[in-house]
Specification:
The protein has 2 helices and 7 strands, in the order βαββββββα. By secondary structure, it is an alpha+beta fold. The protein has a single domain, classed as START domain (Alpha-D-Glucose-1,6-Bisphosphate, Chain A, domain 4, 2-Layer Sandwich).
């Protein structure tokens, strides 16, 4: 099973603490990430050791309506507010790790956060056949997700 990685970064005109507080709430991921269909957690703060479940929807042959839905169970590995956060997930089609890094910086004449998102994943079974199609689609969706995140956070009251 090959390991795939998708890494993106974007400047967001919000403090690292504000960005961290928002993106570490998986039940809000559907607000900015097109693949997320929703998540549930037993805790309001996703600290190290906490777990949550998310439903992910992918369309490997978009615009064809063929859809892959995956229930993913995550465990938070790292939770350092305003600095970094990481969760590892397991699904019937493989496993994944999401890593966020938050760096205070200035850009566009404003102070804010350089937000870095890295997704690494492995697939197994039938998903191996679809992976070449999914990988390209997931790369594009990751870029869309970060631009959605920036737009969402910068519209919110500071």
């Amino acid at each position: 099973m090959p390991v795939r990685e998708i890494q993106n970064k974007i400047f967001i005109a919000r403090s690292p603490e504000q960005v961290y507080a928002y993106v570490t709430q998986p039940w809000r991921w559907h607000e900015w990430h097109p693949s997320s269909q929703g998540a549930k957690a037993s805790s309001k703060i996703m600290r190290q050791g906490e777990s949550f479940d998310e439903v992910i929807r992918l369309q490997p042959l978009s615009p064809l309506p063929i859809t892959v839905r995956r229930q993913t169970h995550y465990h938070v590995d790292i939770a350092e507010p305003g600095e970094c956060w990481q969760a590892s997930g397991v699904t019937s089609g493989g496993g994944l790790t999401i890593n966020y890094v938050f760096t205070a910086t200035s850009a566009e004449g404003k102070s804010g956060t350089l937000f870095q998102r890295r997704l690494t994943y492995q697939v197994k079974g039938l998903m191996c056949v679809l992976d070449p199609l999914l990988y390209e689609r997931m790369q594009n969706l990751s870029l869309v997700a970060l631009h959605n995140l920036k737009k969402t956070l910068e519209k919110m009251d500071a």
